[in-house]
Specification:
The structure is a single chain. The protein is an alpha+beta fold. The chain is built from 4 helices and 6 strands. It starts with 17 loop residues before the first helix and ends with a strand.
Length: 152
């Protein structure tokens, strides 16, 4: 079992113009409703990282699920029981450092534990909220609600 922030294997580096890229990405998703396999929490966070870095953290599971049941199966096939465990495994593979959520900065990935379970989001460009897909559009969640985070 991979522990959080275990082994550094691959470095992810932001483009120089990442704030503009993240801003454009968020603008494209601001009014998009939650959709499994399209705009769920994992793909939203991975798509944001892809926009900022060119690295596709979701490459192994992108396009392979379209429902909650299929997403759960993908987690289990990866050896994870929760979104947080999967995020830890991907972070280890890509050399992302685990940090306390209140140390997270703009564009970092944050784990939330909300009413429907664990989910992922991205620290907003103003640095005090987390953007995450919600039923009808992007939600802004206070950074203090984060469980753990990964530096991008």
């Amino acid at each position: 079992m991979i522990t959080p922030c275990a082994i550094k294997r691959h470095m992810v580096k932001r483009y120089d113009n990442w704030p503009a890229l993240l801003d454009a990405f968020v603008a494209s998703r601001r009014e998009m409703p939650f959709a499994w396999g399209v705009n769920d929490c994992c793909l939203f966070a991975c798509d944001a990282v892809l926009a900022m870095t060119g690295e596709d953290l979701a490459e192994t599971f992108r396009g392979r699920y379209s429902s909650a049941r299929e997403a759960k199966r993908m987690l289990q096939e990866a050896g994870a029981e929760t979104v947080g465990e999967l995020a830890d495994m991907i972070a280890a593979d890509f050399g992302l450092h685990c940090i306390p959520p209140l140390f997270a900065q703009r564009g970092d990935v944050v784990l939330l534990d909300r009413e429907h379970g664990e989910s992922l989001g991205i620290v907003s460009l103003h640095g005090v909220d987390i953007w995450a897909p919600a039923e009808e559009r992007l939600a802004e969640v206070p950074l203090r609600e984060g469980e753990r985070a990964w530096r991008i």
